[in-house]
Amino acid sequence: MTSPALDDKRERLLEIIRGYGSVAVAFSAGVDSTVVAKAAVIACGDRAVAVTAVSPSLASGELDEARELAKQIGIRHEIVSTDEFNNLDYLANPGSRCYFCKTELYAHMRPLADSLGLNVMLNGANVDDLGDYRPGMAAAKQNGVRSPLVEAGFTKNDVRALARLWDLPVWDKPATPCLSSRIAYGVEVTPERVRRIDAAERLLSELLGIREVRVRLESGELARIEVPLSHISQVTEPEISQQLVHRCLALGFRNVTLDLQGFRSGSMNSALSGDGGLVTLSEFLPLQ
Known about the structure:
This protein is α/β, with parallel strands linked by helices. It is built from twelve helices and eight strands. It has a four-stranded parallel beta sheet with strand order 3-2-1-4, sandwiched between helices. It has a four-stranded mixed beta sheet with strand order 5-6-7-8. The longest helix has 19 residues, at 97-115. The chain is globular and about 55 Å long.
């Protein structure tokens, strides 16, 4: 089932993209960029191309999912390797880190789009993103990247509703920002750290059987774990917590904490007072 409001937004989205003539879509395999890629195929046919950036900050499995989704949607899929880890400004991990990442992405997308004769680069930003801290949007503006979901008035809920209507398997996929976003601002971003975070999140997902998890890296190599509030008691079960602590320590973290506020998308952007509700698991669990 759909609604007149969603129908109107869908038609507006297709009209906007059709007006671009030909497009290159920054395609991460998240629900937003997948909806834009699907709309681009409907609107522009073979004049639409999806572009996925590959670097150490891409979580395991995301590239394979992007390939599968592009095949399902029927859009040409190109892959570019980005070099943000060679940028000292990016490695320093300031609050504007995403600006340097997106600038790097668009610097690789533009020559590809030009070589394929594509007029416009698109991203998957929606209206809700405008109220969050998004330095990457400045990079998009500087590089002439358009946000058709914003132009058509799509909220995140609208995006998920349209993805479900179009039978896209990612309609309920949790947000999957890059692995570097798990590292506290001011703590250097390195390939080793993002690999460690990736391994820890895969471990946590396997132990709990859920997708919506975060392992945040704080200063001092401290791992701060975020899971939905409904799963916090599961994490503290001795069998789970001991596996989690010992394996995280083996990965190279020096301490492991559980955030009692639960999973919060973009929590690194929030200044927490006091201790932030952290419980230090590895201080009271014996090593074995």
